[in-house]
Amino acid sequence: MIELENISKVYRTKTIETLALDNMNLSVSQGEFLSIMGPSGCGKSTLLNIMGLIDEPTQGRIEIAGQNILNYNGKKIAKFRNEKLGFIFQSFHLINDLSVIDNVELPLLYRRMGSKERRRLAEEALVQVGLKNRMKHFPGQLSGGQKQRVAIARAIVGQPEIILADEPTGNLDSVMGNEIMEILLRLNKESKTTIVMVTHDENMARKTNRLIRLFDGNQVH
User: For the chain, does the N or the C end have fewer beta carbons within 10 angstroms?
Assistant: First the structure.
């Protein structure tokens, strides 16, 4: 599902050059739940951003769902990202002025889809994450765990083949974190969604199919 070949990423300023990823090779199979661990600054989020087409590698090849993404222009990448990928962030990234259901609908606004269909899909996604009775609430009225459930509903509303999760339990207590993890595990098992998750939590990582570790931009064994 995801193939990264000889991926390197260098960040440059006028005075310093930082190597974030060094000749990285990684394959993620369809339906796999992969977790990525490592100390702060080791390249985890950079790797996830490159998989999510948010950032470009300095060198290397990216193939997602059989497509050589680096051959795409910006508009085509945006369309591919919207249709194939779902994103979950540690800090939720919800819009406080929008209701829960309007937040979940957001990715569908970029598709040719009527308002009734958008609303139906958003309602179904919220039911999946157990928020049927919170659709008209606003983010400020929700707990941290509920906000992350909304973020998961937003990630899955477009029925993506891949979900990329950056510390999805990092801002939650252990009880809420386990509940969020159970939702992700269920999505992976029942919908066969490929999930790549960055985490600092060894217990969460060990629940996934495979764990890789990064150190100084390299995969270590």
Answer: C
